[in-house]
Amino acid sequence: MLFLISACGKAEKTQTENNADVKKEELKEEMTTSNDTQKLAKWPADYPIEGDSVAVIVVEQESVGELGTLVIEFYPDKAPNHVRNFKYLANSGFYNGVPFHRVIKGFMIQGGDPQGTGMGGPGWTVDAEFNDTPHKKGILSMARTQDPNSAGSQFFICHGDPAHLNGQYTVFGNTIKGLDVIDKVATTELQGSTPVKKVMMKSVKIVPRAEAGL
Predict the structure, then answer these.
(1) What dihedral angle (degrees, nearest 10) is formed by the CA atoms of 20, 24, 26, 29?
(2) What are the contacts of 73-78 at 24+ separation with CB within 8 A?
(3) Considering the entire predicted model, what is its pTM?
(4) How do residues 25-46 score in pLDDT, each as one tens digit?
(5) Structural domains in the chain?
(6) Environment class of residue 5 by beta-carbon count within 10 Å: exposed (0-12), middle (13-18) or buried (19+)?
(7) Which secondary-structure segment (H or E) carries 90?
(8) Which residue from 11, 103, 139, 192 puts its CA 20 to 30 A from 186's CA?
(9) Which helix (H) or strand (E) holds 11?
């Protein structure tokens, strides 16, 4: 089970020490995406990202109801095109109703694929904007294939502190409210890495910080 890397005790660490690098590669392979779902025309190069706005994501679960709300701030100085891409998709309604299709406790929750299979995307890609922001709990980062320049619409939010991803995936935001919601998603019942009861983004809105109560 891949999440044991971040959750194991000393004895388990000793047992897995020799395989640590292999397991880390397996974790990275969990975050793959294929952009074969044409939904929109790609954002224009001058699509605005200025302004002190945040993403407000209402998360709900099938047969349970709302789990809570995530509020995420962006890092346009670190990854302008990833911020532009996310805001454009959110403002277009692309993410509404889209599930968190892959969950690994202690590692991350992944969403953004309208197909819910891990193979979908918006129909375009975004070049890598790797930066020095570390991956830690609450960080918003972009999923991709083995090609660094293959990000589309799929993203992940860290549930642990996967330092081995630093510099390998584009960090472009951070959760400033709703860490408990990430916990709820990460600890839901799973079949493999898929929630037994579907967890989805009921709505994703880009709003001024003041409107989000900040």
Answers:
(1) -170
(2) 73/173, 73/174, 73/176, 73/209, 74/49, 74/172, 74/173, 75/131, 75/133, 75/171, 75/172, 75/173, 75/174, 76/49, 76/50, 78/129, 78/131, 78/133, 78/171, 78/172
(3) 0.84
(4) 444 444 555 555 545 789 898 8
(5) 32-39+47-208 (2.40.100.10)
(6) buried
(7) helix 80-91
(8) 11
(9) helix 10-16
